[in-house]
Amino acid sequence: MDPVSAPDRAVGAVPSAAGESAGVLTATGHPLQRAGAWAVAVMAGRSEPELVTAADLDGVVEAVVADAVAAAVAGKDAARYAWWKVLYALYPNSKVTHAKRPKDAAVLTAGMTELFVPDDAEGERWPCALCGAVASVVWAKSTLPMFDTNKALNTLPPGVSGWPVCRGCRVAMWALPYGAWVTAGSATVLSCVQRQAEREFAEHNVQRAKRMMHAGASGMAADASPELVVVRALRALGPGLAATTLWSFKNDNQEPWVRVTRTRRAVPVFLASVSGNAPLRRGWQLLAHHLKREDADGQVTAYGAAEAARLLFEAEDGRSRSLLRQVYELLWETERWTAEDRAALTRLAFVYEKEVHGVEPDLSKVATLIADWIEHGSSSPRGQLAEYRKAALNGYRLGELLLEASFRLKLDGRPVAIVPEEWRLVVQQRSRAWEQRVLLAAEVLRLLQDRGVEVGKQPDDPAERELTEQRVQQPILAPEDHDFHFGAA
């Protein structure tokens, strides 16, 4: 069988022939097993993991073994050596990745095939540690990513020298790198309440694995990311609710780690709003365009679409960039934006907060107070704006500025249509109050521009403006021709 090739059958075909009963594989709640189960389904041409048959498993095992052995015997300059790096990051002590592995393909094939033998119907058996089915084989760290060795007795099932794993789950755990977004040193898998998104993620990655094995690391472009693949799948779902989780991990012998990022349930609703609204599309594309990064040689180091998609994910440990914060920082580049661009970015921020976080604050009165103070204050608008920027994200300092602005305007005989109680929302010290302050700053900057208050020069580089206009006219999250990036360790 060709590497990662699927049996010749239509996707979604229902088993019918004698001996083709399904039920040999279940996609469980374990994220690694689940990603592998979807990879098996894609490689076997089935629409669901639960439709995979024993014959399908045989075909997938043949492909997995052939690919692993070919990578294990490949030279370091060969394209398939890239796949060996992937396997080493997941199974560092396995038969095909061990430093002292034989270079005889026949020996390696026999050893790998033995891993996936059917469960013994008569010998000692236990419930599978992953799905609960009957299992007669026990595995440990060398074949199970992110599991301990069988020497960690306090974590093993009582009286068992490893974790019992049924044949379906064994195949799934080795199909894992096909269904995951892999790099030379880590892998990322997806969990989503919408199974169609999980399948699309697996389909993309199976195709990416094919390219990787044939082109090697140097043949992979760098204009996609697992976040971008997921966001495209979520947009295809339409305006429903669907939370996702990305699990990124490294399973080496020194410092294994796991990182978890999530999207909120309403992200598909936000994406549908952006897709169907011209100003929001413009705001999204402006954001993506200005997130693109190049090195000194002009080589792209960060692609805008992938970076923008990453902003929709929140890290479990809190160490992730926020879309709102990114828009806030861009808006302060006052000499970059036209009135249309600023309005589009501001609207993008407000709609994100409304759709994703369910918050729709009325900040018009507070923004008007600050804009009036900047426009009519005792110093130049630029100086007043600089003072506001210093206080913009600090609740206590912002409260002081609002009091000062209110008194200053009243002393000058100008109307003030807001009382301190009404600005409590943006100055109080509470969780996520900073988001209200970010939106307030966006609205203040928009008001100033609408009033013609000069706080920065308008962009006057025709070439840059033409490039920006070309970018913003493209559909959001448009598929790239070469979005199968291999990535560094």
Automatic annotation (TrEMBL):
Residues 455-489 are annotated as: Disordered. Residues 455-469, 479-489 have a biased composition (Basic and acidic residues). This is CRISPR-associated protein Cst1. The lineage of its organism: Bacteria, Bacillati, Actinomycetota, Actinomycetes, Kitasatosporales.
